[in-house]
Design brief:
There is one protein chain. By secondary structure, this protein is of the alpha+beta class. The protein has five domains: 4-109, Chitinase A, domain 3 (Roll); 116-221, Roll (Chitinase A, domain 3), CATH 3.10.50.40; 228-332, Chitinase A, domain 3 (Roll); 339-444, Chitinase A, domain 3, CATH 3.10.50.40; 453-526, Orthogonal Bundle (Recoverin, domain 1), CATH 1.10.238.10. Helices cover 15% and strands 32% of the residues. Strands 1, 2, 3, 4, 5 and 6 form a six-stranded antiparallel beta sheet that branches. A hairpin with a 4-residue loop joins β20 (358-367) and β21 (372-375). α10 packs across α11. It is rod-shaped. It starts with a strand and ends with a helix.
């Protein structure tokens, strides 16, 4: 004679219970006391959907549902006066029948409900939150209120990408995403009238279903965004900043906005080398690399429309904001020449180095970021060259000009005057600017340009006869070499310093041996000034 309610299962968490006026979705089995089943929502494959306390149910069920939690299971005994009474339902329920219902509550909501947001993780740093018209990338698990999964972006291994607040989403999701930070995790509960309403989506979501989205925001930008630059380290000394047309060498780590690494020059152990402002890199990087100093570290945040756009590339998903942490190693401009900074010059600086001089000097060689490449000090000996003879890179030949003994200077050499794009494998990176700290220790004056040997006094009028010691009218290489050696040893003549004696003498002899037969005759033998005069007469 009385309503009987047995709570057979009550979930541990029950944030909300049914109240009169709520709309519920539930499954049930209906049977008579002898166990005979007369109805079942399971057989129809759909829940029973109804308002509670509005007379849409038999009185006993209206009472029995009040106080239920989602996922709660109740066994309900309803006497006839709270069911179908003395009339029953012809052909289904006899008069004065006691009814048993096994009820499982699936969903409940109220027409006054709003979107509920529960944040369960929020990053410490939140420089920006989702606003209307922002474009977001997020992962989600979508469930019903009873926990049944109906969709998941994780299963597709692809984020859901969309604009917020402009009608691309169901209204409840449009509201629920507002104010989120990248990296934030929240649960968004949406009543059906802010989701798919009475009809559902025609697929997995039934009509009148509350939806629960467990969301993690991975990315956020606005189509009006430009790049953002965060300076992490700017050297105290910054004599020059990069401009359009400069060539940069830099290291970088490239990540997505959620911290996922997609590329790193460090892992390849090689800088990324490129021109700036010429379209060789994505537009956002072209802009972000302007105005940097050598040694500077900065973070460049690039929206997708200045990055790889909607399509993405490789490990970079479409519509992804990119974060580059860069370290500028060096930069130069193709129009750069050698830069010379003199640190010390002796007061008695009268003899300056010139082309052809033989120089001995110490140096420390480094990259523009200070990385040491080589040092004569560590070898314990000087570096010796003939200036202007191509024994060093062109920039060093230029940087050693007009030095005096004891002078110390720094010579900065752009790569097109150094080792070029290829560098020196294992020693000098390609396209590297080189810095040499130099001290000139010794200078031996060279000969006038074009001369390998000169006399210190008057030249004998019988020079050929003196060289032709056996007076056979022919001079062999051995005779020629012995004669030159004697002139040098006695101080009568001087060879160009810094070159191998045998090579110089052989070169001089070959110049005189005009027919190439290995012998020099009196007719072939001519001094340099005589050669110049004959050429002038011919002209």
């Amino acid at each position: 004679t009385e309503l009987g309610v047995e709570r057979r299962f009550v979930p541990e968490s029950c944030p909300r219970a049914v109240r009169p006026g709520d709309f519920v979705r539930y499954h049930y089995l209906g049977a008579f006391p002898d166990g005979t089943r007369f109805d079942s929502s399971y057989d129809r494959g759909s829940t029973f959907n109804v308002f509670v306390g509005k007379g849409q149910l038999i009185a006993g069920m209206d009472q029995a549902l009040v106080g239920m939690c989602v996922n709660e299971r109740r066994f309900v005994k309803i006497p006839p006066q709270l069911a179908y009474g003395s009339e029953g339902v012809p052909g289904v329920i006899p008069p004065n029948a006691v009814l048993h219902f096994d009820v499982l509550l699936i969903d409940l909501w109220n027409s006054e409900d709003e979107v509920q947001v529960q944040t369960y993780f929020k990053p410490e740093k939140c420089p920006r939150t989702v606003q209307v018209s922002d474009f977001v990338r997020y992962h989600y698990n979508g469930t019903f209120l009873d926990g049944t999964l109906f969709d998941s972006s994780h299963n597709r291994m692809r984020t859901y990408d969309t604009y917020v607040g402009i009608g691309w989403l169901i209204p409840g999701m449009d509201q629920g995403l507002l104010g989120m930070c990248v990296g934030e995790k929240r649960i968004i509960t949406i009543p059906p009238f802010l989701a798919y309403g009475e009809d559902g989506d025609g697929k997995k979501i039934p009509g009148q279903a509350s939806l629960v989205f467990d969301v993690v925001l991975l990315d956020l930008h606005n189509p009006k965004d430009g790049i953002a630059i965060e300076n992490q380290l700017v050297p105290e000394s910054c004599e020059r900043r990069s401009q359009t047309g400069d060539f940069l060498r830099y290291h970088y780590n490239g990540t997505l906005l959620d911290g996922t690494l997609f590329d790193s020059s460090y892992s390849r152990n090689r800088t990324y080398d490129t021109y700036v402002g010429k379209g060789y890199v994505i537009a956002g990087m072209d802009e972000g690399l302007l105005g940097v100093c050598t040694g500077e570290r900065r973070r460049i945040i690039i929206p997708p429309h200045l990055g790889y756009g909607e399509e993405g590339r490789g490990k970079i998903p479409g519509s992804a904001v990119l974060v580059f942490d860069i370290h500028v190693v060096d930069f130069h401009n193709p129009s750069d020449s050698v830069s010379i900074t003199v640190h010390y010059k002796p007061s008695n600086c009268t003899v300056l180095s010139k082309k052809g001089d033989y120089l001995k000097y110490h140096y420390n060689a480094s990259l523009l970021d200070g990385t040491l490449l080589d040092s004569t000090h560590s070898l314990g000996k000087t570096y010796n060259i003939v200036l202007g003879s191509g024994q060093v890179v062109l920039g060093m030949d230029m940087g050693l000009q007009d030095m005096c003994v004891g002078e110390r200077r720094t010579v900065v050499i752009p790569p097109h005057l150094g080792y070029g794009e290829d560098g020196v494998e294992g020693e000098v990176p390609g396209s590297a600017v080189l810095v040499f700290d130099i001290e000139l220790l010794e200078l031996v004056s060279g000969l006038p340009e074009g001369y390998m040997f000169v006399w210190n006094g008057e030249v004998s009028p019988n020079l050929f006869e003196e060289i032709d010691q056996n007076h056979d009218g022919e001079v062999l290489l051995e005779e020629f070499s012995e004669y030159i050696q004697t002139q040098v040893d006695t101080g009568k003549g001087k060879l160009a310093p810094g070159f191998d004696f045998e090579k110089i003498v052989k070169n001089m002899f070959t110049n005189q041996d005009r027919d190439g037969n290995g012998k020099v005759t009196a007719e072939e033998f001519k001094l340099k000034d005589q050669e110049a005069k004959e050429e002038h007469d011919e002209l």
